[in-house]
Design a protein that fits this description.
Elements (H helix, E strand, L loop, with lengths): L1 H31 L4 E8 L11 E4 L2 E11 L7 E8 L8 E7 L6 E7 L17 E4 L3 H26 L2 H66 L3 H4 L11
Parallel strand pairs: 1-7, 2-6, 5-7
Antiparallel strand pairs: 1-4, 2-3, 3-4, 5-6
Length: 251
């Protein structure tokens, strides 16, 4: 009796787990029913840390496939070769770019697809390649890391140049330049300032002489104007040699 009961228990659990497996398989089949995928290649030029096989592929945040394979590019070990299975009908063109993305703070990675240029044509498989290749774009972390590296290198270059300027030879040269400037300034204040005073005095005297010359020039111009007027009124003056009339009052 006990033996029959044990067989019943064993058979019950076997049947139960068999039904569970059948239901689970049917659910898996139903969720993937009607979906077909197209494989694509992506070559990443950065680390894909956090990305796992079967990891999601999202197009503008929408799940459109999964990562089928991750490996090192044998032709260029600096690159990572990804095979993506993407649902047919997804608008993949030569203007589409794949980028490494991270889900929040979990550190779990996925591949994000985005259309960079809608005017590009369809993606065509290149000769010698297994699948069509989607262009990759640097991730945000990669761009930040590159910018930080450039900033550090620039700071180091500036520091090196400053150190070059502060060598003993350059410090001595700068000190000599300052000393020479002090010497020149002292000579200007003692000698050339006196010469400047003489130049200013001569300029003042020249201004007075210039005023006298201008007055004489004005008088001569006035006499010429009177002579021209007399000749135009009485041309016989040139023949008779008539003297000019005496100047009137105020002339």
């Amino acid at each position: 009796m006990d033996t029959k009961f044990n067989y019943f228990i064993v058979g019950f659990f076997v049947l139960f787990f068999t039904c569970v497996l059948i239901v689970w398989g049917a659910w898996i089949f139903s969720t993937g029913k009607g979906k077909s995928y197209t494989p694509y290649l992506v070559y990443m030029n950065e680390s894909v840390s956090g990305l796992n096989a079967n990891g999601p592929v999202k197009y503008n945040g929408v799940d459109v496939g999964y990562v089928a394979h991750i490996g090192i590019d044998k032709q260029n070990p600096k690159r990572v070769r990804l095979v993506l299975n993407i649902e047919k009908g997804t608008p993949i063109t030569s203007g589409t770019a794949a980028t490494m993305m991270t889900q929040g703070l979990t550190g779990i990675g996925y591949v994000g697809l985005k259309m960079l240029d809608p005017n590009k044509g369809p993606l065509i498989k290149l000769p010698g390649e297994e699948f069509p290749i989607i262009n990759s774009a640097p991730s945000l972390f990669f761009r930040l890391d590159s910018s930080l590296t450039k900033l550090i290198n620039s700071a180091e270059n500036i520091s090196n140049k400053v150190n070059d300027l502060l060598t003993p030879e350059n410090r001595k040269s700068v000190s000599n330049i300052i000393s020479n400037l002090d010497h020149i300034t002292a000579n200007i204040s003692k000698q050339d300032l006196n010469k400047l005073d003489v130049i200013l005095d001569n300029a003042a005297m020249g201004s007075e002489d210039l005023a006298a010359v201008m007055a004489q020039l004005n008088k001569t111009t006035h006499d010429i104007q009177r002579l021209t007027k007399m000749i135009s009124e009485n041309p016989a003056v040139l023949l008779r040699g008539q003297q000019l009339p005496p100047p009137g009052p105020g002339e």
